[in-house]
Recover the amino acids of this structure.
């Protein structure tokens, strides 16, 4: 039996640019995540993906709509306060840029231990430091990194530390906003395989935001497509890539390069008129309860 862990209902958010101008970054977005699934959120730059993620994680207060996480309306200040500890420990976020998300003046050990210390979590590994070492090992790094500082690490290593820090809380739900976008291509593959392996091992629900559709196809069970602040299509990954329903999804897929020069030259780029958004009416959601998962491949350690 699947269990809805996150229920986003008619989420709307706008930013005030000037006294008289606001921008509607997210416009009536609704979707649910089932416990243990990997959900990809895609869409062009500025389509509202990060704003959705930030509303879900209480970094922005939404202008409208409701967000239920494990039955708690996180947008309601009273409910948020009542469940603050649960919300702060069981939900974790990983950002694109680990240079700014990790404190550059703290050692790797302190970075990983900090959330456990703040939330008074008794470390399963005995001491906080032993637990930090275990978490570091789980993301493919040995104890020699414990005393290093983020500027001494490569981008991929820093992102591994950010993942270890998030996992130290044994979260039920992780949001990763373009976590591989600033890494080299070869490192991107390692981090994606690490996510896949860790998710299979820990079973957390994973909201993964990305530009790279090939990565989303490889990693995600279901995919939501955003365009101009709206969620225009949700489908199991295999279904979305085989039979995209919305014109904007077709456009996105048609822009993915084909690794065969002959086919690539012959490719016809789709076009999409944003006014189509008005004509499509309801968002298309395809067979929500059915998703196929690809087997976990090579662990990157
Ligand atoms: N803090 C902000 N102040 C004003 N406008 C903002 C702010 N953050 C986002 N926006 C605007 O809201 C819209 C949605 O932005 P958002 O960052 O959510 O998009 P995105 O899909 O995450 O884009 P990207 O793929 O580039 O990260 C964009 O038009 C953006 O310019
Ligand atoms: Mg973004």
């Amino acid at each position: 039996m699947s269990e809805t862990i996150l229920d986003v209902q008619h989420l709307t958010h706008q930013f005030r640019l000037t006294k008289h101008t606001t921008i509607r970054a997210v416009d009536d977005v609704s979707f649910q995540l089932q416990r243990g699934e990997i959900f990809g959120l895609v869409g062009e730059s500025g389509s509202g993906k990060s704003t959705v993620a930030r509303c879900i994680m209480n970094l922005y207060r939404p202008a409208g709509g409701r967000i239920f996480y494990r039955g708690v309306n996180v947008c309601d200040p009273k409910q948020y306060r009542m469940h603050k500890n649960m919300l702060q420990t069981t939900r974790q976020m990983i950002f694109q840029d680990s240079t700014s998300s990790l404190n550059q003046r703290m050692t790797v050990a302190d970075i990983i231990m900090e959330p456990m210390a703040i939330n008074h979590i008794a470390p399963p590994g005995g001491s906080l430091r032993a637990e930090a070492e275990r978490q570091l090992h789980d993301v493919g790094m040995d104890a020699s990194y414990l005393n290093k500082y983020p500027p001494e690490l490569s981008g991929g290593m820093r992102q591994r530390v950010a993942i270890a820090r998030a996992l130290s809380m044994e979260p039920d739900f992780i949001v990763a906003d373009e976590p591989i976008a600033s890494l080299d291509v070869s490192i991107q593959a390692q981090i994606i395989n690490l996510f896949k392996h860790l998710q299979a091992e820990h079973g957390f629900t994973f909201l993964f935001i990305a530009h790279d559709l090939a990565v989303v196809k490889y990693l995600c069970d279901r995919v939501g497509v955003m365009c101009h602040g709206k969620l225009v299509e949700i489908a199991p990954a295999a279904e979305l890539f085989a039979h995209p329903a919305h014109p904007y999804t077709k456009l996105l897929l048609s822009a993915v390069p084909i690794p065969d020069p002959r086919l690539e030259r012959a490719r016809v780029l789709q076009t999409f008129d944003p006014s189509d958004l008005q004509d499509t009416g309801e968002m298309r959601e395809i067979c929500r309860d059915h998703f196929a998962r690809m087997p976990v491949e090579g662990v990157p350690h």
Notes: The domain at 4-285 is CATH 3.40.50.300 (Rossmann fold).
